[in-house]
Each structure stands twice: as C-alpha cells, then as structure tokens.
Amino acid sequence: MLKYIIKRILMLIPVLIGVSIIVFLIMRVFSPDPAPIVLGQHATQEAQEAWRQAIGLNDPIYLQYWHYLKGALTGDLGTSYYTKIPVVKEIMARFPATIELAVVAIILASLFGILIGVVSAVKKNSIFDNAGMLLALIGVSMPIFWLGILLIILFSGTLHWLPSNGRIDPLLQPAHVTGFYLIDSLIAGDSGDFVDALRHLVLPAAALAMYSMAIITRMTRSSMLDTLGQDFIRTARAKGIAEGRVIFRHALRNGLIPIVTVIGLQLGSLLGGAVLTETVFSWPGIGAYTVTCILKSDFPVVQGVVLLVAAIFVLMNLIVDVIYAFLDPRIKYAKKEV
Amino acid sequence: MLLEVKNLSTEFKLKRGVVKAVDDISFSIDKGEILAIVGESGSGKSVASLSIMGLLQKPGRISGGEILFKSQDLTKLSRKQLQKIRGNQISMIFQEPMTSLNPVWRIKDQIMESIRTHMQVSQKEALARTIEMLDTVGIPSAAQRANDYPHQMSGGMRQRVMTAMALACEPELLIADEPTTALDVTIQAQILELLYRMREKFRMAVLLITHDLGVVSEAADRVIVMYCGKIMEEADVRTLFTRPLHPYTVGLLQSIPQIDEDSDKRLYMIKGMVPNPLNMPPGCPFSDRCDHSMARCTKEMPQLREISGHKVRCFLYDEAKEGELGAK
Amino acid sequence: MEQKRNLNSDTSPLQAAEYVEKPESQLKAMWETLRQNKAAVAGLFIIGSLALIALTVWLSELMGKQILPYDPNYSDMGKSFVWPNAEHWFGTDQLGRDLFSRILDGTKISLFVGVAAVGLSLSVGVLFGAVAGYRGGRTDALIMRLMDIMLAIPSILLAIAFMAALGKGLDKAIIAIGLVSIPEYARIVRGSILSVKENDYVQAAKIIGNRPSRIIYKHILPNVISVIVVRATLGISTAVLDTAALGFLGLGVQPPFAEWGDMLGRARGFIFTAPYTLIFPGIAITITVLAFNLLGDGLRDALDPKARIK
Lengths: 338, 328, 310
Hints:
The complex is a heterotrimer of chains A (338), B (328) and C (310). Chain A is an all-alpha fold. Chain A has 13 helices and no strands. Chain A has helices spanning 2-30, 35-39, 45-55, 61-73, 87-122, 127-141, 144-158, 181-188, 191-228, 231-238, 243-280, 286-295, 299-327. The longest helix of chain A is centred in the middle third of the chain and has 38 residues, at 191-228. Chain A starts with a helix and ends in an 11-residue tail after the last helix. Chain B is an alpha/beta fold. In chain B, strands 6-7-8-3-9-10-12-11 form an 8-stranded mixed β-sheet, sandwiched between helices. A 4-stranded antiparallel β-sheet of chain B has the order 2-1-4-5. Chain B has helices spanning 45-53, 79-85, 107-118, 123-136, 142-145, 155-167, 185-202, 213-219, 237-242, 247-254, and strands at residues 3-14, 17-29, 34-38, 60-69, 72-73, 90-93, 173-177, 205-210, 222-227, 230-236, 304-307, 310-313. Chain B is globular, with a radius of gyration of 21 Å. Chain B contains 10 helices and 12 strands. Chain C is mainly α and 310 residues long. Chain C has a single domain, classed as MetI-like fold (Orthogonal Bundle). Chain C starts with 12 loop residues before the first helix and ends with a helix. Classes of the chains: A mainly alpha (338), B alpha/beta (328), C mainly alpha (310). At the A-C interface, helix 1, helix 6, helix 7, helix 11 and helix 12 of A face helix 5, helix 6, helix 10 and helix 12 of C.
C-alpha cells in the first residue's frame, strides 16, 4: 500500500509539470502584455520595455520556464507584478478562506446528499423520492452564482437574516492562527466571532454545496438501489437485523465506493465553483482573486494558483483511491498494479 | 407441529396483471423433520419460503392464509416482532453462496452480528461461539479463517459459513433454499451431509427447497411437489420415489438419468412448457403437458385428495379408494 | 464514470456484422424507450420550444423585422427599472431595455454557444479518444496524459484563462468552453473503444485488411455513438452553464448580444433595488439546462438495458 502511494505521488510530478507548461504557454504566449496594465496606460514605450526586460519577459520562453521551474523547486513562485508581494504569501493570505468555504460546502453536500439519496432509494417511487430527485435535478441545472443571488435576495434582502458579503464583520478582528475563522475563533474562545463567521459562511456555503449535493444525491440513490437488490442484503434481513442497520451498515457501506468517487471529484469542481461563489458573495478567497489576476495578466500569481489547485485535485484522486482500498477489501493495489 | 402453513397464497401485482406465485398451499413440519419442496423454477417454492421468513419484496405480498410457527401467526406479526424470530428461531440459507455474504465484512463479523442481535452475550463470547460454529460446520483452522473476507473463500466454504451463520442462534427451523445448486457435485454431497448432521445435533427442522430430486432422495423425510404455485403431491420420501402418483411427479422421476438402465434409451423429457403465470388455464395447470389429460382436466381444477397420508391433486385418482392407489 | 458496454461479446462475427450494418437500430431502440419516459419527453418539448423561439428571433432579425415586443437593445433611460407590469412582463433593466424581449433574444445565443461548443469538444474529443484507444501504446499515453493534465485544472479557471488569452466575444467563448470539455469525450470514446476493440467482429475486420480509419468509422463508432449522444446532450447543459458563468464574470459574449449570464453580471449591483432583473435571466438559464438534463438522463436510462426492462 505504502509503495503504491509513493508511486502515485511520484506520478504527480509529470502531471504538475504538464499543468505548469500549459498554463505558462497560455499566459506568457497568448495572454495580453502585462506591461501597460502594470505601469498604466500612459507609460512610455521605453518604460514598458525596460520593465519587461527587468522582469525577464523578454527572455525566450523556454528560459523563462526554466527560471520559473528552478524557483518553484525551492518554494519560490515569483512575486505578483502588482503588489510586489511573493506569490506564496498572496496565496496563503487567501487560500484558507476558500478552503474553509469548500470544506464546509462539501460536508453539507455529502451529509444531505447521502441522506436524501439513501431515503430516496429505500422509499423508491414514493413522494419523498420524487421530491428528492426533483430537487437534485434543479440542483444540477441551476447556475451556482444565480443560486447565490437568489439566497441573497431572500435571506439578506428580504428577510435580513444573514449577511450577503465578506467573511466576518469588518469591525471584528479574529485572532489569526490557522486562517480558518471558524477554527481561529474557537481557539481564541470568542463565541461572538465564531457566530459572526458562521453567519457569513452559511449562504455562500449553501450556494456552493447545492450542485455537489445534487450530484451526490443522484449517485447515492443509484448506488443504493444497486446494493439493496443484492443477495447479501436479503441475507442480512434473514438474520433478523433491524432495517436501519441493514440499510446503513450493509447496503450503504457497500455502495460507498461510487459515492466516495463523486465526492472526491466534487471537491475538485468545488474549487472551480468557488470562483463564482466568491464573486457573488465578495468572499476574500483565492477564486475571485485569481480571476482578476488572469484579467490583469499577473502571470506569476495565476501560475501559482493553478499549480496549487491542480496538485490538490490530483492528490484528492489519490486519496479517493486509497479510501477505496479501505472500503473494499477486494481491492489490492500493492501487488500487481502498474 | 412446529410450523403449520394454512391456505397460504402469495401474489405479485405487476403492471400486466396479477401473478399468483403461491396458490392456496398448506403443509406442516414437525420438530426435527426434513421436509423437501420440489419444483421447477417458477413453481413458487422459493416464494413460499420467503413468505415464511417475511422477506417478500414488493410487489409481492401475502394475499391470504396463515403461517403458524409454534401456534403464532407470522403473517400477523409486526416487522419488529418478525426480526426477533428471523435468524433466531427460523433462519435461512440461500442458493448463491458467492453473493449472499457481505463482501466488505469479515466473516466473523457477519456471524457475530447475528449472534449479538439475538443473544445477550459479550463481544468475546460471540467471537468464541462464532469460531466454534465455523469449526462445527467443518471449516479447518476456524480461528484464522474467521478473519477472512468472503472473496478469499471457495463457494463450498462460503456455503458452510452461511450455514454456520444460520445455525449460530440454534434455530428450531432452518429453511434451505437450493443450498447446493450453485456448488460442485462433490461439494453438494458435503453440504447435504452437513445439514443432516446439524439436524441431528441441534434437533431442528429443515425446510429444504430444491429442484433436484437427487438431493431430495438423499436428505428429506417427506416431500411436497409443487407446480405453478400449487401442491401437486405430497408423500413421505420412500413412497414418493417408489409409488409416485401424479403424472408430473412421474415425469420428474423419469427425467433423472439412471446409470444402471439401458444406456441406449433417451432421457425422458416432459413435453411442452410451463404455462404463462399471467394467463393460467382454468383447469389443472399441468393438463396441456400431461400424457393422461382428459377433457375435464382443462376445465376444472382437481382437488388435493388425501388417501392414507399420501396426497395428490389429479382426476386420475378421483374415485380411487385405499388400496387402489398406485394402479396407474 | 467510465461506461463499459459490451453488447456484442456473445455474438458471432457474422451476427455482429449484421448488427453493425445498421447502427441506427441502436438509436432507434433508444428512441422507443425514450418515448415512454415522460420527463425526457418534457425535456425534448422544452428544447423544441426554445429552439423554435431562437430560430424565429434569428430569422426575423435577418429579415429586419421586429417580432419581439420591444427591440432588445433599445434603451430608454426614462423607463429604467420599471417593475414587471402588463406592458413590460419582466420589467426593464438599468438602461430601460425590455427584459422579456432580451431574455427571448438571449435564447439564440445560449443555444448556439451550447451546441457549437459541444460540437467543437465532441469532434476533437472523439478524434483524440478514437486515436488513443485504437492505436494504444505511446500515442495513447501521450494523448491521455494531456487529457489528465487538462482535467487537473478546474474547467472554469481554464476557460477564463482561454478567454483572457483569446479576448472576449461570441466565437472565443465557444472555443474556450469547447476546449475545456474535450477530455471528457476523449475519455468516454477511448474507454468504449477499448471495450469494443477486442470483439470478434472488429478483429475479423482487421484480419480482412480494413484500414484503421475505416474500422473506427464503420465498426467502432456505431457502437459508441449512443454513449456519445448521451454525453453530448448532458454536455450542452454544462456548456450553457459555462456560457452563463463566463458572461456573469464579464468575460463571455459581449453586448450588443443579449446573453443571460452577462445580464445577471451587469444587474448584480441592483440586487436589492431591482431583484427582478436578476430573477428572470436565471430562470431562463435554469429551464434551458434543466431541459437538456432531462433529455440526457432519459437517453442514459434508455441506453441502460436494466432500465429498459423496467
């Protein structure tokens, strides 16, 4: 198992190099020249040229890439063209906000998705099943950002229950330990901060979770319908085991593999969806920031973020595969694979 | 009587009509007895066993009759009450040993689950009992194999595990639904021998569901022949094999290959096909396949008549009196 | 989910050849099952209506006729933010344009971008997948690694980067949205081809000496076509969502075209003062996506032999 994991982590390297090359090409070869944006419209041609020269943009592309790669290996992803702050710092300042949002969203999505999916499968063709499937269908059909807008209109605009933007009241100063406000405020023992951070989190997390929840619901239902029809479920019932235990400990436990796969994949797409959610809710995370950086041709930041997100995505796939082996004793990676 | 089934009917409501999978059957099993129900697939024998267990899945349902287990009507019990009996006083083993065990649980956990559900014992005692049961059903080095997952065992081993699981709470009635069908012939004999031995050891009754008359002759005390949801004939095993009455039973017996017979003779085959369950003929369901079919056979249903312990549903024996049986 | 289908594993080469003769029979069987599915028929009906609206608007525009209640781009600042009423069913926006007309007008953009983007990713993806699956070996490894790399980047970020590189506009949006979903099609086609490739009749065709392109076209594609049809239908809904997302971020189809996502993005500042400007475009997107999802789900069920029995 360990050998397999190490092998897979080594296989990560070519993928990440590939990702970096592609992003490098898209940004540095095809994207607009950052010089006029950085120096302003009125900068002279000479000043722009001098800036490009200084920053290394006049070097041949392979040389630029080489320098970038060398830096990246030592943990230096360059500095932002605009803020002149190292990319690593820029990312670290915003990433916790995105992770907090995505993690809460995936927890909500998995919890409700699995629950609704299981009940829908058990009560197949009932009113609950039909309602659940309709909800899931609408969930996959609604644009994430529009759902966010609707939630704001309802809960912030009309009912005034929840705030519509930001992570926390600007007047509150949460202690900065992990960057996750929910955790930080708990560590500091400040329940006021915690509640406020939670209130800010509810709407964006719900908006972001909806799509994933819908996908997880559908997958859970079909996986459960599959396992509930199997012989060992009949055996479990014949043993006189309570129905709840049959459903959760036997059927769901066996149907988990496809569900875990979707959850893993959804975490990847959540990071993408965060771009839109963060824009709608003015969430100070990495997604909305990256969009502005792409538009401003801030190459180092974009490269850094995409590398990071790709690494997370590939790691998630690895984690899912490892979870498989725990879920299903029939899966063995160590011996013959690859 | 341990189990008395009275006028049990089971139906499946499908879009295209209602199928009476089990049609007004009655039988009983005594303590320690092995009763076999024989029939082709679709004869209703498995549905009957699932009805007793209360394991019928939609759209199937019991539409009439009583199932008296120790004088208690199982059809009137709540799900909770049934769960207390299932796996405890009545347990079941199934045809498909390859798929009937939960693939992601260790076998000891599956057996222990059964024990801990029905008996007030500690984890430790349950494990000890599990290993003891695995040992009893003939699994070598049971303590180690207990940690295996089902996929690490052969089909025969898995059926032994199923048996151990079913017997773990010392049931008074074991329903074995085609327990040997999916197994190799050599393994079949071992499993039958095991059932026989367990019956002796635990003094339990066995309801053996099978399509294989060979299995019946080896294991059963008494036999019921089912066809299209109805009981066609019932007799003790010796009588049935030596003096079968119903033409269907006769046909079944003749289609068993016999080594000692003239090898040139082609194996007997019952002509025709089982009627469509959605469109049952009004008369005897076997009438259009029967060599002795009479005009009235296609019009009215013969009654199940009992003559000195031997029951048969056929007009051929309508006027028969004691002593005349077996004339056919 | 990789779809593994092996319809022909038991058939002899001769029977299989017969089967391949008419690839439409598989689609026909699919259609027969589909017709029984109320939800799918509803989806098909909505798609038909949307297509009808789009075509009518487009044709009347070509002929210079005004078929919509108002010119979707006519701005009357004196009538900005009129709440929905009998005159303006969906109200007017910040520039006093009639929202009902703009939403009907937007149908053609969404459908066009959706279909065109899927067409692009479909043709490139099928080509990649077919070549990778059929050739195997190094070609396969190369193509599929490239696909893996693309999949590792969130598609919305990739599309945004493409838009930044290509510039804004209708054609660019199609390319960006089309490019990001190439890997999906490539994967599906490759998977299907791998499972079909070893069948007797394909082997037989090979032995007779058919050229690879002919084998792929004549023998393999007909067998994966239904899987692709399902994927493409669901793909259109994704493409419509992506179009709206790009538009919302201000990166997609640009004015004067009325595009639903763009309308939402521009109205965002008026979320509390004129919420209706944000509700109707969203409903339009959701209905369109929903329709393609309904149809796609129906097609998938029609493909699944298990579902067919029920």
